[in-house]
Amino acid sequence: MPNYANDPSRTSWLHVSENSDFPIQNIPFGVFITKDDVITIGTRIGDYAIDMGALQQLGYFEGIELTDDMFMQDTLNDFISDGKKTWRLVRNRLSDIFLDSNPVLRDNASHKDIVIFNIADVEMLLPVQIGDYTDFYSSKEHATNVGKMFRDPENALLPNWLHIPVGYHGRSSTIVPSGIPVHRPYGQTLPNGETQPVFGPSKLVDFELETAFITTDANLMGEPVSVKDAEDYIFGMVLFNDWSARDIQKWEYVPLGPFLAKNFASSISPWIVTMDALEPFRCASPEQSPEPLPYLKQTGNHAFDINLEVAIKPETTEETIVSRSNFKYMYWTMSQQLAHHTVNGCRVNSGDMMGSGTISGPTEDSFGSMLELTWGGQKPLKMKDGTERKFINDNDTVIIRGYCQNEGLRIGFGEVSSKLLPAIDIKI
Amino acid sequence: MPNYANDPSRTSWLHVSENSDFPIQNIPFGVFITKDDVITIGTRIGDYAIDMGALQQLGYFEGIELTDDMFMQDTLNDFISDGKKTWRLVRNRLSDIFLDSNPVLRDNASHKDIVIFNIADVEMLLPVQIGDYTDFYSSKEHATNVGKMFRDPENALLPNWLHIPVGYHGRSSTIVPSGIPVHRPYGQTLPNGETQPVFGPSKLVDFELETAFITTDANLMGEPVSVKDAEDYIFGMVLFNDWSARDIQKWEYVPLGPFLAKNFASSISPWIVTMDALEPFRCASPEQSPEPLPYLKQTGNHAFDINLEVAIKPETTEETIVSRSNFKYMYWTMSQQLAHHTVNGCRVNSGDMMGSGTISGPTEDSFGSMLELTWGGQKPLKMKDGTERKFINDNDTVIIRGYCQNEGLRIGFGEVSSKLLPAIDIKI
Lengths: 428, 428
Description:
Two copies of one chain form a homodimer. By secondary structure, chain A is of the alpha+beta class. Chain A has helices at about 50-55, 75-80, 85-95, 105, 110-115, 140-150, 245-250, 275-280, 335-340, 370-375, and strands at about 30-35, 40-45, 50, 115-120, 125, 135, 165-170, 175, 180-185, 185-190, 200, 205, 210-215, 235-240, 245, 265-270, 275, 280-285, 305, 305-315, 320-325, 355, 380, 390, 395-405, 410-420. In chain A, the strands form seven sheets. In chain A, strands 6, 7, 8, 13, 14, 16, 17 and 22 form an eight-stranded mixed sheet that branches. At the A-B interface, strand 7, strand 9, strand 10 and helix 7 of A face strand 7, strand 9, strand 10 and helix 7 of B. Chains A, B: InterPro entries: Fumarylacetoacetase, Fumarylacetoacetase-like_C, Fumarylacetoacetase_C_sf, Fumarylacetoacetase_N, Fumarylacetoacetase_N_sf. Chains A, B: Pfam families: FAA_hydrolase, FAA_hydrolase_N.
């Protein structure tokens, strides 16, 4: 089936500003609530949120096999379950509905009134109910930086890293959409030079620049998904800030991995950009040496050229961009991650989320965490307002943005923006 | 509100054999499917499964505030969400309905026909939709054994272990009820003395003897649950076999913890035994030294005296009991685990599951895994049929049983039984 929604010559009768992340070629999927407390599945063109539930009720999806209430739901899980063919049919249909030359909705004022909202008038919700969330650790530069700081500078990469897309399970219940503030977490830490741990708010709260992909039902328990087929089970991608408390992490993580240092909050951008929309930005990954085992071996281009940046905005002054990176630096691809995840028969469901791991580029200004950017706090970052940051301060907002760009087209994710609030007042 | 369902003098008009795990004082909760494909929430007395959906439709829960379809659901999540007061009201009511002296259902043949099934005629399903699953590592004996084998025999316990109920996130999608067979998983391993990993079926599949507790909605994101209040948010417990592939685990687990070595399958017993039913078996925990930090400190008895055993049954011969242990050996209590889990504001929802970690006792015959029982395969176990086991063989069934016993009363869990099938045939 042609993916004609990607045609760069298409324009919409909805206004799209020049540098918008959301031209008619994007058509991402999300869930929003209107001022009248209606929750619906929707898409976005320019600065307009489109109510797909209303579109469905008005008959705009006729001819596509969908359950009657497919878009009148508060999560995308059922739609994602329907699989790649349906995603493409719906995305093509949306492209047609908003195509410049199509008068059907364009010239129907009462329908437009029901269907189209200013983006500022809706609140974005979590787009999927995330059953299971896995975080990978697939940036070689990040793994090397962490290894240098915490283990052995001469043998920074652990022996398994070049053979395994290392990953671990995370917590679904604290994944929140952009805009939800996060409190500085409490926890146990071991102060430098001490032997007894202390309890209190984390002193070293950090962001992690990541992306994440959302899956459809990929397999039954016991059945691996091959690396060749894996991309068919990936619905789309979001930006992801994997909030981390470095002092809690350092004390707790041996031997079973990070736990409370990570599960206090994880923030995602609310619009899932489909793999169909990202197709024009497919590119090569870094060379893999040694060659991966056969179940992870793939040919062709499986990376995506996605520009990423992180800004820190203090409460009352302007933001400072602290990192510029790119998703294409990842050593392991998403299809390798998914093939590895299922090779033991682990079941993957619709709405599961898999994080890339911190995305660090090759240069110091492309590192994906304050831990790396300030090299463990040794080299504070200068902010535009003259203050310095080793880690994230109370009331700072961390903003991650991402977009793809070629000569004719920009496809973006918008942003994931979340404010770090002070620790709550607790008496324990 | 009195918890009178626990009265040991009560007897039921339903037959309960002498050593049954399910006297009228138990009243566990589960979900089953009948031969007519009806899925319902139910309880068990003796060898009878009770259809609580049918009981509700017939008016037997009148006077208790419940949504109309509370028990006509395929998970217990909504019921568990209703909180401790409702659990107790329903359990007391069930005790009354089946009380020897109560003729209402006893003498109504047509109602009995609808409500009561032989346990052999129903299939037990997963009792809850598990949003997030966490596994702890709270047996000091187990952590010490593993530390001796894999790290430093002189410093077997890691420095954080006595201060933190160490835990990590697991995979919800592959938690299955007793009776579902499990395939030997594929994965990467590093053969002894080699530097390049190989791919194939795991050679060292193991069980882990655990229990798990199921929570109700405990908090909002950002709000800790105090150790004092934690027990109020625990609905009940199940037996838990945390299947593990030791060779995959050894190669993959540094630095982010076990992943594919664990997430191919985790098996639980299908009846959730409530904390109310376990109340008579409350007992002291091992002394905690050093004293825990204030947020983990508690007084009184917070352990439970639950006898546990593990049997291995080869395909065609009789079973051999390979371990006898007790839940009371756990160093950290469930309330400490839950308080720790939420101290950073991590949200805990209805139906979340938290595993104890492998439960090993102080003696060699009370260890909770083949890894420990055979000391890494060095001391194979003799089976009754004359064969030996270092780990679990294809077509072996692993059975975990658990029960509490005092002079007057036995409250049990039944069993979690699952067969290890050979690796599937895959071409990669």
